[in-house]
Structure formats: C-alpha cells, structure tokens
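ok trying again, last paste got cut off:
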Amino acid sequence: MKNMGQIQIKKIGRKVVTGKVGENRTKVQKTYGKIIYNGTLGLTEMAAHIAKHGSVFTEDVVIGVITKLKNCIQEMLADGYKVKLDGIGTFYPVVTSEGVADADGYSTQANIVRVGVKFLADQSKRSLYKASAMKNDTSLTLKLYNELTAEDEEGDGEGGDPSNGGSGQGGSSQNNGSSSSSGSENQGGSQNSGNSGSSSSVAAPTISGTTPFDDSTQVTISGPAGSTIKYTTNGVAPTATYGNDYEEPITLNASATVKAVAIIDGVASEVATKQFTKNGSQGGGGEEGM
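nice, full thing came through this time. structure:
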C-alpha cells in the first residue's frame, strides 16, 4: 500500500557530546527531525473514521465491536495469554518483582509489586507497521521554521532518542543527574537530571512522595498546564513516546527510581528523577517493562 499517509517533520537543533568517556569530549550542534503529532484519536473518533471508510456498520456498532475486543483482550491478558492482532502487534502482560535473597521466601503476594501490559508492534514481513514499510509508504513533509527548535541532548556520538528525533546510531540520549533524596525523610519534589544548560521549552515535572518508607508509598507527578506525563521505574529515561502514561498516583511497594517527563505538542521536558527507598530493602525492585 503506497501513500498510507503524511507525517509532518520539524527540525530540531540539539547539542550532542561526541567522543568516548574518559577522553576529550566536544559538544557540537546537530540538526535532527522530529514528528509533529496531530493529536490522539480516542475510541469515538476511531469508530467514526471506520464507519466513514465504506463500512456497512454504523458508528455505534463499530464502538460496540471495539469495546468487546478491548474487554476480551483484557480478559485474555489477565489469564496469562499474549494477544496478537495480525498486522498490528502483540499485547502481553508484564510484572514488576521485588528480589529476595532466599528463593524459598519468595511469594507472589509479597514480591510481585506491579502487573502491567506492554505492546510490541508487528514487525513481520507483511506488516504495514514494520519500520521499512512505514518509511516507504508514508510521505514525510518537512515543516520548516524560521528558527530551529532547540533541545540540548547529551549523548555519545550520534546519540538521541531514536523513537522520535534522534539518529538511533548509538550513544545515550538521557541526562542522568543525582537523586534528590538519600536516607532521610523526604516529601519534597524531584530533581531534574542533566545539565542546567538544557533549553527544552517544556518545564520538567515534579515528583513527590515520602522516602524512605516502610510498607508502601504513593508517588504523585505534576507537570505544567496542558501537558501529559510519561514515567518509568525501570531506570530508563522516559521520552515523548516511551514510558508509562501517568494518570493517577503510583503506589510503590519496593525501592525504585521514578523518572518522568512532561510533554506538550510532542516535545518532552528534561527528565525529572527521584529515588524512593524502602526501609530494610536489599535493593530496588526489578521491573519487567516500564
């Protein structure tokens, strides 16, 4: 299928650190491309779109079918199945597990601290979502601005976020800073990671919660008006396209490092980081997924 659609690209100016760690390193200015998202389509919008595509089914019937599919996928995931939608991708359940020194002392009730869902896009030869197919079948329109949108991006060589805007040729795109909490009772906000010289136009979110804690703690994340938030607890920095969507306070039952970004119009802020430590913990909880 040719000319599947049209994606607009804007130019992003980033300062990238080149050279190996321990050697003389230089920060250079480079220009990358980044997707301009048109918005997010919900169930109602998608049903209306399907109904207008020569479908014999009305919009309410389409909504009913999609809702039934959604409920059945949830049911199958809860029963431990992976659900593959051919040509789209696979949904599968993941867990976050707190490690224990003694295998005999491990229990699902005490040591499984989170159950979530991940999605892997179909990358088979026939899939329209395979990277090569998307590139061949999508028109890329370069939207030019009088000035580049500036984003400082620390990385080794050709670093950057390969999911949206980076070259994806290696290197690290995340700016890691020190945690804002260590050992004492702390209910304050997070500390932004990375260089203070970053020029992201979006203010970083604030991560709040009590640390250290005994049994569990609730973590809240707040961002600037009009923003959405993505977060991770697996040590990987979230981006505009990677991470869990923050919708309600997060409950932590094990030590973890929470990282978050605020996103406005597809542009992510600096990464905010906060370490949460459980009293008597032998180390952080390991997370499968995000």
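cool. Confidence is low (pLDDT under 50) at residues 152-162, 167-186, 194-198, 283-289. Residues 19 and 25 are 5 Å apart (CA to CA).
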